C-alpha cells in the first residue's frame, strides 16, 4: 500500500485530507507542527511525529527514515510565525538565499529543498475534488446586480494583490475597497472590514499562477461565522481552486444566515 507523507498545519484541512486519502487506500505518515496542528490527527493518521516550525532537517529526516518519496503540505501556518520561529541551520541557510520572504517564496524554496532529498510534493487538493466547486451560486440566495458588480470589481483586485503575494482576500462595497488581506489572514481582514461597514462583499481567490502544492484558498464553517459576525452579505470564491471544508455544513450555515456564496 502506498504511503504519503503529510506536513500538517492548523485547522480542519489536514484532517479532511487524511480521511480522504485513507479512503483512497493511502497510508499517511504525518509530521504535525507544535502550536499549529490539531492533536486529533494522531487518532486518524497511521503514524504521527511532532516538530516545530522551522525544523527543516528534522522533518526531512523523518520522511527519509520512513522511506517516503512523496508528501503533501496541508493546512495553514500563521504567517506571523515568520517573526517568532527559531529555524534550524538548514532553514536559516534556505532563508538567507531568498530575495524576499513572502509565503510563496518560502514554500517554493522548501519544496525545492525536499526535492534535493528525493521527496516530491503532491498537490494539496489531491483526493479532494468533490470539495472544490465549479462556477455558479452555491447557496439558495443569489447576488443582486449591485453585488455582482462588486464581485467583478473585487475579483479583479484580489487577483492583482494575490499576484504580488500580499494576500488572497479583499472586501468591497459599492465599488470601494474596504479591506485588503495581508499577513493577518482572511478572518481578521473580514472583521476589520466589518468595523467600517456592513453588507459588503468578500472575494477570495487563488494566486494567478497558484501552486496547488500549498496555500490554496480554503472556506470552512469558521469563515461563515466570521462573515456573520462582520455582517458581510456575500462570499465570492474562485471556482475550481477553492476548497470547502465541511461543505454541507458550510452551505447550511450560509443559508440559515442569508449569506450568499458563489464561485466565479
CATH architecture of the largest domain: 3-Layer(aba) Sandwich
Low-confidence stretches: none
Q: Which range does the strand content fall in?
A: 15-25%
Find the count of extended strands (DSSP E, 2+ residues): 13
The secondary-structure class comes to alpha/beta
Instruction: Report the helical percentage.
Output: 25-40%
- N-to-C terminal Cα separation, in Å? 38 Å
The CATH topology label of the largest domain is Cytidine Deaminase, domain 2
Order of helices and strands: EHEHEHEHHEEHEEHEEHEEHE
Largest sheet: 6 strands, mixed
Count, helices: 9
Rg over CA atoms: 19 Å
Taken together, the total number of domains comes to 2
CATH class of the largest domain: Alpha Beta
Average of pLDDT:
93
Q: Globular, elongated, flat, extended or rod-shaped: what is the shape?
A: globular
Layout: helices, strands, pairs:
Blueprint: E1 3-8, H1 13-23, E2 27-33, H2 41-44, E3 47-51, H3 56-65, E4 70-74, H4 89-96, H5 103-116, E5 120-121, E6 136-137, H6 145-163, E7 169-173, E8 176-180, H7 186-194, E9 201-204, E10 218-219, H8 221-230, E11 234-237, E12 243-244, H9 247-256, E13 260-263
Parallel strand pairs: 1-2, 1-4, 2-3, 4-5, 9-11, 10-12, 11-13
Antiparallel strand pairs: 6-13, 7-8, 7-9
Amino acid at each position: 500500500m502506498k504511503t504519503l507523507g503529510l506536513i500538517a498545519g492548523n485547522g480542519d484541512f489536514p484532517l479532511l485530507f487524511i480521511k480522504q486519502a485513507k479512503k483512497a487506500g493511502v497510508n499517511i505518515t504525518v509530521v504535525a507542527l507544535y502550536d499549529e496542528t490539531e492533536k486529533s490527527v494522531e487518532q486518524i493518521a497511521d503514524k504521527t511525529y511532532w516538530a516545530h516550525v522551522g525544523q527543516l532537517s528534522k522533518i526531512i529526516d523523518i520522511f527519509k527514515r520512513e522511506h517516503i518519496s512523496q508528501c503533501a503540505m496541508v493546512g495553514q501556518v500563521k504567517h506571523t510565525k515568520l517573526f517568532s520561529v527559531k529555524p534550524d541551520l538548514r532553514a536559516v541557510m534556505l532563508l538567507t538565499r531568498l530575495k524576499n520572504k513572502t509565503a510563496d517564496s518560502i514554500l517554493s524554496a522548501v519544496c525545492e529543498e525536499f526535492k534535493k532529498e528525493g521527496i516530491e510534493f503532491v498537490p494539496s487538493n489531491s483526493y479532494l475534488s468533490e470539495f472544490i466547486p465549479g462556477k455558479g451560486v452555491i447557496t439558495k440566495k443569489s447576488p443582486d446586480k449591485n453585488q455582482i458588480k462588486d464581485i467583478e470589481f473585487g475579483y479583479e483586485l484580489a487577483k492583482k494583490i494575490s499576484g504580488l503575494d500580499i494576500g488572497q482576500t479583499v472586501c468591497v462595497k459599492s465599488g470601494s475597497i474596504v479591506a485588503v488581506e495581508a499577513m493577518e489572514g482572511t478572518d481578521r481582514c473580514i472583521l476589520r472590514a466589518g468595523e467600517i461597514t456592513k453588507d459588503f462583499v468578500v472575494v477570495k481567490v487563488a494566486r494567478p499562477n497558484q501552486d496547488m502544492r500549498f496555500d490554496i484558498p480554503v472556506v470552512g464553517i469558521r469563515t461563515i461565522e466570521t462573515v456573520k459576525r462582520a455582517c458581510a452579505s456575500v462570499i465570492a470564491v474562485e471556482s475550481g481552486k477553492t476548497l470547502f471544508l465541511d461543505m454541507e455544513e458550510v452551505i447550511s450555515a450560509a443559508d440559515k444566515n442569508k449569506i450568499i456564496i458563489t464561485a466565479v
